Amino acid sequence: MGVTAVTDSAKFSAAALDELIAARQEPEWLVDLRRAAFETFCEKALPSRKEEEWMRTDIRTFHLDNFEPPAELSEIPADLPEGLLTAGVDLGGRVVSYNSRTISSELSDELKQQGVVFGSFAEVLESHGEVIREHLCHAVDPHFDKFSALHAAFFTTGQVLYVPRGVVVKKPLHALSLMGAGGVDLGHTLVILEEGAEATMLNETASVDETSPGMHCGAIELFVHPRARLRYVNLQNWGRGVWHFAHQKGVVDRDAHIQWTIGALGSKLSKVNQHVGLVGEGAECEVNGVMFTEGRQHLSYHTLQHHQAPHCHSNFLYKAALQDRSRTVWRGMIKVDEGAQRTDGYQRNDNLLLTKHCRADSIPGLEIEADDVRCTHGATTGQVDEEQIFYAQCRGFTRNEAIRAIVIGFFQQVFDRIPVESVREALGKSIAVRVREYE
Partner of 40 for a Cys bridge, out of 18, 143, 250, 267, CB 3.0 to 4.6 A? Predict the structure, then answer.
């Protein structure tokens, strides 16, 4: 291919890519996309702390050659986790993958008759290839960095949701990505809502083994066409040995709306770029982030609210609670293009420190080129108030019960913005059981 590699990888090699392409028999346009991404992957070095975006996130102990492209499954383990988000929920469809290979795919007959498509990437590529071609990698740039290029070159599975014009999907759809010990997940989520469509999608990740090493290098692309409405939930709950690298972007068109809820609970280290592009006049987005860290977890989220059209509204609220020696990094940017007049943008990050040695970094920012806008941002970091604990103990709470109640109360503002009850309950319970008693 005539590419000079800056960072060689014995496992994610040209031969490995050729093997993947030969096995999948994909259309020429997708093969070309993979090969172009692989060239970028070879040319780019892994990010370092010399770069502004990475200066607070150290990946020097990450070694790509500890992992390899996902192999075909020889067997599927019994008793796989069911996920946390769907307790008591009547689903319209469900897709489950294990180690980046789809193991089950279901969609109700009613939704099929309405033209809704929900399934694995491979099956939807076969039935709706042109729709995928018009959207795949049009939101997330496969040449952004080494990880986005790695993903685009080697991804093997994922979920695709396509909702035709004017169709309202009343029941939530669920996608569950599971990882075994030492596994690699390169899943790609692609959601396309045509004009006037509505849907709710619950997307979550989990590890079968809580401590074994693993790597997720994924992408999420959400296309919300004019007057469509998408409620999207993304719960990251990988095991504590997993390196999690992800690029996620929503593209919201004229008078469309997206509500995006992020739950960040798992992984050893996470580095996530989450962008929303408001590309049509009157577009709206609301993003709710819930982060809880413990041990030596490191979670870094870089959010971008990009106002590209007039009369758009964006509202980002991220809250994090930390204990032990864990760390979070949140970098938020509201960017307003010159023609995006009458913009209303808001971002906020609040952090609650439960122990002395945890650390939260908040870096909000504004980049405004229009002159008729209202953009505000804020960030707070503080510890649990001992007076609040004392007040609760006077009313019969133990110290641990009091701290748990304070932590849940801290997140309540975000929970109140989440319309799906099962998601509110799952996040609340998952956080409550992690909070430990401290003197």
Answer: 143
